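Severity: low
Component: inverse-folding endpoint
Summary: output formatting inconsistent between runs
Steps to reproduce: submit the following structure tokens with default settings.
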């Protein structure tokens, strides 16, 4: 077997592979002998089929499969051994006719080569934002915690903020009991002042903003004109806010994590600033990527990529469609190349232990959101194992670790101009940037 490579232009090449009969005949004979032993052909006893018949029946197909296997392996090994950085996959050059009985077979494969370019992060300059958390925002979190960890308290009559447990009769037919939050109703006047045992008859149009809300609440399809519902009040409750004391601190942050209201508020402020810092970090990445795309110029093997898309994507029937698709994916492709260049220059790798650590951090944070600050080790290990066994989730966590490493490289190398802003100012800035990104 002989392999050569001819460069057609700076970013394209053709790999030519010449296969001799000696390269595949032994394997072909072995496969045909196996066919002869197992073939079940009418008129012949098992294992007694003449080899001439087997060759006539299966020979060309076996040669085709064997040669194709050899070619795929040869192309892959050549790319790896020559350390070629390619885009897409090799495309076989179609031949009108192949004489499979010839002593020598020659095949061509087109490849697209990744462009050579340099990335200089020191020339990138972006703004970064430090969000200052004000006392009124801390108070919102405190109010949320006291509400979330509060307890149900019975009320004598319906009032603002009440939560009602009701039996339901829809158009005269009994339905499943449900709960109604007074604050969620468009108009709660029909319920105000009612007590346990009272009956309220209304049309869904009068109490819900949309038919979707009515449908979701009742558990049955509701038409535009609404339906008549009879509610019988079984319970009238409200949520009594939790007191701001050690019990609340322990429920929110774990036993003994904070020991005073001052420390509680300070921890809320710190965690809020850390959360906003993560959002600001995302914006650093977005802004650096935007500048790199704008300032790092290189050509792509457009002609090859257009052919490759046509060849590899069944939904693309013409080169015109492929060209349109390439235009859509070009920005993403360019950044993948830039990202790979930066990662290679900085030896960025992600190992399984780092992915596991990311899973632990993500799961711990998620459990914390639901008020679970402690969990048995065995249960935690089961949750982590479940997450890591899900390939999609593993890939997501792996890319998150990779992204965090890229962020660290950006922070170390690009020029960051820090700007202190309020939360509202930060939201306005991010909203405007996202709008610009969507329009780009």
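Observed output (run 2 of 3):
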């Amino acid at each position: 077997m002989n392999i050569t490579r001819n460069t057609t232009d700076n970013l394209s090449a053709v790999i030519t592979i010449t296969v001799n009969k000696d390269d595949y005949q032994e394997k072909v004979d072995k496969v045909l002998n196996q066919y002869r032993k197992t073939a079940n052909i009418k008129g012949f006893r098992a294992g007694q089929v003449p080899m001439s018949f087997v060759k006539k029946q299966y020979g060309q197909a076996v040669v085709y499969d064997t040669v194709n296997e050899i070619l795929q392996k040869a192309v892959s090994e050549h790319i790896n051994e020559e350390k070629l950085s390619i885009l897409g996959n090799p495309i076989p050059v179609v031949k009108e006719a192949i004489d499979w009985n010839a002593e020598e077979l020659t095949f061509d494969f087109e490849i697209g080569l990744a462009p050579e370019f340099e990335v200089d992060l020191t020339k990138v300059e972006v703004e970064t934002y430090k969000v200052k958390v004000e006392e009124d925002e801390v108070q919102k979190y405190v109010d949320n915690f006291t509400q979330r960890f509060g307890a149900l308290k019975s009320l004598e009559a319906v009032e603002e903020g009440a939560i009602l447990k009701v039996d339901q009769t829809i158009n005269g037919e009994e339905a499943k009991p449900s709960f109604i939050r007074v604050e969620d109703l468009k108009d709660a006047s029909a319920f105000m002042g009612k007590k346990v045992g009272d009956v309220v008859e209304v049309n869904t149009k009068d109490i819900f903003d949309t038919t979707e809300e009515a449908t979701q609440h009742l558990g049955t399809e509701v038409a535009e004109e609404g339906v008549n519902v009879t509610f019988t009040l079984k319970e009238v409750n409200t949520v009594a806010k939790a007191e701001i004391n050690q019990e609340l601190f322990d429920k929110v942050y774990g036993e003994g994590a904070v020991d005073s209201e001052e420390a509680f508020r300070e921890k809320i402020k710190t965690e809020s600033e850390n959360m906003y810092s993560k959002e600001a970090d995302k914006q650093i990445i977005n802004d650096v990527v935007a500048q790199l795309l704008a300032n790092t110029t290189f050509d792509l093997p457009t002609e090859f990529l257009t052919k490759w898309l046509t060849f590899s994507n069944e939904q693309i029937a013409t080169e015109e469609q492929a060209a349109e698709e390439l235009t859509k994916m070009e920005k993403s492709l360019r950044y993948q190349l830039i990202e790979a260049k930066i990662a290679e220059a900085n030896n960025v790798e992600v190992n399984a232990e780092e992915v596991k650590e990311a899973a632990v951090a993500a799961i711990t944070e998620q459990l914390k959101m639901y008020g679970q600050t402690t969990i048995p080790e065995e249960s935690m290990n089961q949750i982590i194992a479940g997450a890591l066994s899900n390939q999609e989730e593993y890939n997501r966590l792996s890319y998150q670790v990779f992204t965090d490493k890229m962020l660290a490289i950006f922070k170390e190398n690009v020029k960051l101009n820090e700007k202190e802003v309020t939360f509202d100012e930060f939201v306005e800035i991010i909203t405007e940037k996202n709008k610009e990104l969507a329009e780009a």
